[in-house]
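Researcher: I'd like a structural prediction for the single chain below. Treat it as a standalone chain; there are no partners to consider.
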Amino acid sequence: MEGRVAERLRGALGPLGFEVHAFKVGWYNAILQPGFHLPYPDDTLAFVVLSTPSMFDKALKPFVNKERLKIIRDPVDQCVSHHLSHVKEKFPDQKVDVIFDYEILPSRKPKFLAQTAAHVAGAAYYYQRKDVKLDPWEKKKIYGVCIHPKYGGWFAIRGLLLFPDIQDGRYRDIIEVKERYSEEQKAYFATPPSERFQLLGLTQEAQRGTFH
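Model: Treating it as a single chain, here is the predicted structure.
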């Protein structure tokens, strides 16, 4: 199922200059504070959507030429919204939720942290201050940046596609893999981080000690 979903998404969005990369909601939530968690079970299948440099010619310009009189807000946002909403129609038997990068919660927080999503999906590496061994900035506030393995910084994170009805690990076998997690390892990573130490036979004191 997950392999077909990924193939269908890439077939629909790839020719338009978009990339899609799969991840589990649990991977994302595990490294963030609860206030930033996505409100889905950990095993929910999700895809982060990136626009590459070719999106400008393949998607944006044709969209603007066709929809010129209907554009009432940012053309890029409207173009992305159009194509991602259209993708949902390709999954008539699946519930598909879309979250766009510009959406915010009533608290004014973003609905998702785009760079974190790209990082956990393996779409781009999110370099942060802690990655710099010799910090030259002292007390200056420094923001992280995502670097794509092919496009460097010349890309953008546009949104998430979530499939709440797909909540198992079969998408891991989208390709022919050489090695898989053992059943014990699957159970470990399916367990909330706060409870994993018990599975390893470690005490709460040991757990606290790892963060000192």
